[in-house]
């Protein structure tokens, strides 16, 4: 009987002689020496053969028709045995599955065999079908819009938590009469400038304006926006812990800070909403105390500066230089206003810059070596979720969103960097004119 061996015992338990018998019964006796004597192909090796194995060295069958017929017979073997025999041991199942994943995936990717073997390869690698709930969850994770929405909600939730933490740490503020300002080299050297803190927020507003324009016109705007929300949320989540665990005394006697001002939960919640709606900015009339380790204004300035420099072409050096100046002068204005200790600013700059670089370095490393997905999912769950299935290393290309749907690339417009830089600088000057 032609398929006697397949019905008698599972194909992955065949010996080399069984494979030779199968070749002879199916009309491939001329390849018995090649398969059995030379390459020692048993049943497990037989059903993991792909078109590339038969076409390329060392097997390299010269007749295309024989390659197609052998693959068709192997496909029949797989379907008759369902890749795993019900009476086979669990150990045999596991070994067969592990050895066949890489081979079957390469077979499925071949253009000549994708139509005839795609369904077979899917069942062969993963015979268990997903439930509708699992499919919905997978589609939701893969959805770019869903992950972008989650990143935005994550950032808003962290900002609200940070606002509530600000109200809590205000009540834990040390008494200014018992705990005077700590010695600080920079604060002692820089005279107090009451207007400097407002200029710091103007620098941040200008870079935020730049960043919004970049997100709107960037070709990969969803990826850029998602990374902005993810990094901002993570940095300020860490800031919530550092603010709460250690309460430093006020850095200057000019600050009107009295502890136990928002003692009840209701008062703290109302204060948190005031800080949240005012974005924690003095320009919006929000003044906070106790949030010294580490500086949120420095983190915002640094993060905006790094994002603008990362997601704009290198030849936009005028814009890059201007953003670095805004970052540096913004930090100087924070110290000149005596709103933070120097250590607050230095640690904030270090944490923000390192986290930004680590995130993008990890994205580049995953792009080069996409293996170890399970380990990455365990150690970097947020990174895995926000970057799952999306482009990791993106090109800085821009497009104009117009009603007709026609878009043009920045590469086709040589003068666009000059025009955009001029437009952004004019927007920054407009913000300064509004202040004064």
Structural topology:
Layout: H1 4-8, H2 16-25, H3 32-38, H4 43-47, H5 51-55, H6 64-81, H7 90-109, H8 114-125, H9 132-142, H10 144-171, H11 185-189, H12 196-217, H13 221-245, H14 265-277, H15 296-310, H16 317-336, H17 342-368, H18 373-379, H19 381-387, H20 416-435
Helix pairs in contact: 2-3, 7-8, 10-13, 10-14, 12-13, 12-15, 12-16, 12-20, 13-15, 13-19, 15-16, 15-17, 18-19
Number of strands: 0
Secondary-structure-based class equals: mainly alpha
Unreliable stretches, pLDDT < 50, 5 or more residues? 83-128, 403-416, 427-436
Count of helical segments? 20
How many strands, what sense, and barrel or not for the largest sheet? Answer: none
Give the overall shape, derived from the CA principal axes. elongated
Rg over CA atoms: 32 Å
Distance between the termini: 96 Å
Q: What is the string of helix and strand elements?
A: HHHHHHHHHHHHHHHHHHHH
């Amino acid at each position: 009987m032609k398929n006697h061996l397949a019905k008698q015992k599972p194909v992955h338990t065949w010996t080399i002689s069984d494979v030779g018998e199968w070749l002879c019964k199916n009309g491939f006796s001329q390849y018995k020496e090649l398969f059995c004597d030379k390459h020692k192909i048993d049943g497990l090796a037989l059903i993991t053969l792909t078109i590339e194995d038969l076409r390329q060295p060392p097997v390299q069958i010269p007749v295309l028709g024989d390659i197609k017929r052998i693959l068709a017979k192997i496909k029949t073997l797989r379907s008759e045995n369902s890749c795993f025999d019900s009476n086979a041991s669990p150990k045999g199942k596991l070994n067969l599955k592990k050895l066949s994943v890489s081979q079957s995936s390469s077979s499925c990717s071949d253009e000549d065999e994708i139509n005839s073997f795609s369904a077979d390869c899917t069942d062969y690698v993963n015979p268990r079908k997903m439930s509708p709930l699992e499919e919905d969850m997978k589609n939701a994770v893969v959805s770019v819009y869903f992950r972008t929405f989650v990143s935005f909600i994550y950032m808003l939730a962290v900002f609200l938590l940070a606002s509530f933490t600000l109200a809590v740490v205000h009540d834990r503020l040390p008494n200014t009469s018992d705990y005077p300002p700590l010695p600080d080299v920079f604060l002692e050297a820089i005279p107090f400038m009451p207007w400097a803190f407002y200029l710091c927020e103007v620098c941040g507003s200008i870079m935020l304006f730049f960043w919004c324009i970049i997100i709107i016109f960037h070709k990969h705007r969803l990826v850029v926006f998602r990374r902005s929300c993810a990094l901002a949320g993570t940095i300020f989540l860490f800031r919530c812990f550092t603010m709460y665990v250690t309460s430093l005394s006020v850095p200057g006697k000019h600050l009107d800070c009295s502890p136990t001002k928002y003692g009840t939960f209701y008062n703290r919640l109302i204060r948190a909403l005031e800080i949240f709606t005012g974005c924690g900015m003095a320009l919006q009339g929000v003044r906070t105390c106790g949030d010294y380790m580490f500086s949120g204004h420095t983190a915002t300035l640094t993060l905006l500066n790094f994002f603008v420099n990362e997601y704009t072409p290198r030849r936009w050096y005028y814009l890059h230089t201007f953003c670095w100046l805004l970052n540096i002068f913004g930090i100087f204005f924070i110290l000149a206003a005596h709103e933070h200790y120097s250590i607050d600013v230095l640690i904030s700059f270090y944490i923000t810059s390192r986290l930004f670089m680590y995130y993008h370095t990890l994205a580049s490393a995953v792009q080069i070596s996409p293996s170890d997905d399970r380990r990455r999912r365990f150690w970097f769950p947020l990174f895995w979720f926000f970057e799952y299935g999306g482009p990791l290393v993106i090109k800085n290309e821009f497009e104009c969103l117009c009603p007709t749907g026609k878009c043009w690339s920045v590469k086709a417009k040589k003068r666009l960097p000059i025009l955009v830089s001029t437009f952004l600088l004019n927007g920054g000057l407009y913000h300064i004119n509004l202040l004064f």
